[in-house]
């Protein structure tokens, strides 16, 4: 009898578990910090929608928003925090258990 | 969320993460500018020490001072807007920026130390000939590291050519023709790879 992959549903981080937040965390794992327009383009969502999802990630201390200026233009940079990176790796591990790879 | 939806979302996230990881290096314009400027400076320096240009050899310091000032101004101009380009904070771009800043500081320290040494009678004019080999060696290390990080073939080529240039210029360090050879090797090790990097980033 093959061993079924074991997983504990509570291991799935519901802060990350959503299409847009998942995409944001995936991009930030490779490019951090990323600018707001960059994330909008890469995730294929709207500014308002991205803001909502970033707020949730920021509340969990997974990302940190740095608001400043580039010349005279406002610029927001989104940093993946150390807590966020750990949570991301843990999430990936939980997903592997669920899918069974 | 069904299993199929989950797999699709994970595949999408993987694609996005890979796009970030594979973001092109953005140092092409600045690299091409410095490689081109330095090639011209090397050729002029070679022409001066060969006696083709009628200015005293000690005045070659002015060539390099001009190269440094012009290069710095152009770097500031060319760097504008780079920090807003997608992928500019990818791991490879951050590594490249840090490595080149450190490399330029070391080459500048090398050169300034020789100038101070010459002014105080500690070093001789021929010691300045060690600057090109030192610069090529630093470039070989940086490009080798970036080639390992990114897997880009043009960086491997640049690292190898910089290594060859280090060896060749060291062997010719006491010959005035070394500057012409250094200029030609910099076209291969610096100008062409930077041109390729520039095109990849577009």
Automatic annotation (TrEMBL), chain A:
Domain Winged helix DNA-binding, residue spans: 20-99
SUPFAM superfamilies registered for this protein in UniProt: Winged helix' DNA-binding domain (SSF46785)
InterPro entries named in the record: ArsR-like_HTH, WH-like_DNA-bd_sf, WH_DNA-bd_dom, WH_DNA-bd_sf
Domain of life: Bacteria
GO biological process: regulation of DNA-templated transcription
Database matches in Gene3D superfamilies: Winged helix-like DNA-binding domain superfamily/Winged helix DNA-binding domain (1.10.10.10)
This protein's name: Transcriptional regulator
The organism of origin for this protein: Algimonas arctica
TrEMBL record, chain B:
Keyword Transmembrane helix annotated: yes
Entry keywords, A to Z: Membrane, Transmembrane, Transmembrane helix
Membrane-spanning residues: 32-55, 61-78, 99-118, 130-147, 154-173, 179-196
Superkingdom, natural source: Bacteria
Name of the protein in question: Uncharacterized protein
Originating organism: Algimonas arctica
